[in-house]
Amino acid sequence: MSTTRIYRLPVEQTQWKIDGQTTTAFTWEYDDGSEELLRLYAKGKSQQWDAASRIDWSVEIDPDNPMGTPDQAIAIYGTALWNRLGDPDRADVRRNLQAHTLSQFLHGEQGALMATAKIVQTVPSYEAKFYAATQVMDEARHVETYARLLHEKLELAYPITAPLAKLLEQTLTDRRWDMTYLGMQILIEGLALAAFQRIRDTSSSPLFGAVNAYVMQDEARHVAFGRLALRDYYPQLTDAERDEREEFVVEACYLMRDRFDQREVWENLGLPVAECLAAVEQSDHMKQFRRRLFTRIVPTVKDIGLWGPRVRRAYDEMGVLAFGDLDSGTLLANDERVAEEFDARRFVEQQLAPAADRAREERAAYRGD
């Protein structure tokens, strides 16, 4: 099935190839590595899962609201524009916004696939190469999962946005292995965790809730991977090297915060773009969402030692500086735990369903139905 047929905008405009400068690092030391990274590698192996069997793809969705998320999450909700829309138009808004969000997840996961393959090639330590190899499989599974959601459940998709493309290009073209970690494992993956959580915790659809819970379980390990590697490496940097990385963090965070205006959706639907963008800027819900995006990023950036005046000023201006006091390890552990709870609920449902069916049959037989 071709994805091209379900894109709502010409995908050719974002179909690009980039030239990355990469140094391949072999290592001849196969022992005495980081015990924490080796434990993470063991967890990565044991927590591999199959998207075809762990996810119940038979779940029906509401065609007017596939994710089952509340309308209050839509930036134009409650505005004069929203009130002018009829039910069919509101359904189009929901479906297109949700498809746009899932499409960026999909494209971001492909970027993560490329970045993690690069980490395997460039990182100097063997235990980091081992864990990164498990993450390559994770990212391939995530691409498979979000592509299937778009093809089978929504049947529409959007090309990658320019800000996300720019950040991926910066991450993939830098030849220094730590910059790939910083751009992907800390910033992009950290932001993705918060975006996934929004759907996991607000969706009334068991399908979309489970998908995002399971992906978050993997992503929590990925952020922990970057955190472990860079926390040991960054204290070795010179002031000039650390300043360069802090500048990248600030630029990337502003880029990510400002990319959620979903201009492409408003244009595709033929809605008044200026009015929609103004609603996005004024929406209290969107302001809260943009702040929450940094709940995983800020404490991790602080933990790895990129906490100079430039970074603190930027986070203060964004209203997210207080997140630096959060325990990033606790947040990531919770993301893993919630996925296990989804599995437990599904197991209980699978066990109870046959018993409930038998009980109904017995009652019907007793009544002579």
Provide a compact summary of the structure.
The chain has 369 residues and is mainly alpha-helical.
Features:
mainly alpha; Ribonucleotide Reductase, subunit A; 369 residues; single chain
Description:
This protein has a single domain (4-15, 37-367), classed as Orthogonal Bundle (Ribonucleotide Reductase, subunit A). Residues 352-356 have low confidence and may be disordered. 69% of the residues lie in helices and 0% in strands. It starts with 34 loop residues before the first helix and ends with a helix. The chain has 369 residues and is mostly helical. It has 15 helices and no strands. It has helices at 35-46, 51-54, 80-84, 87-122, 126-154, 162-173, 177-202, 206-233, 239-257, 263-268, 273-282, 284-292, 297-303, 309-318, 328-367. The protein is globular.
CA distance, first residue to last residue:
46 Å
- Which structural category fits the helices and strands? mainly alpha
CATH architectural category: Orthogonal Bundle
Strands, total number:
0
- Summed up, the domain count is 1
Radius of gyration: 22 Å
* Percent of sequence in beta strands: under 5%
Specify the biggest β-sheet.
none
**Annotated CATH homologous superfamily:** Ribonucleotide Reductase, subunit A
Question: What is the N-to-C succession of helices and strands?
Answer: HHHHHHHHHHHHHHH
In DSSP terms (H or I, runs of 4 or more residues), the helix count works out at 15
Shape: globular
Mean pLDDT: 88
Helicity level: 55-70%
CATH topology: Ribonucleotide Reductase, subunit A
Uncertain segments: 352-356
The CATH C-level name is Mainly Alpha
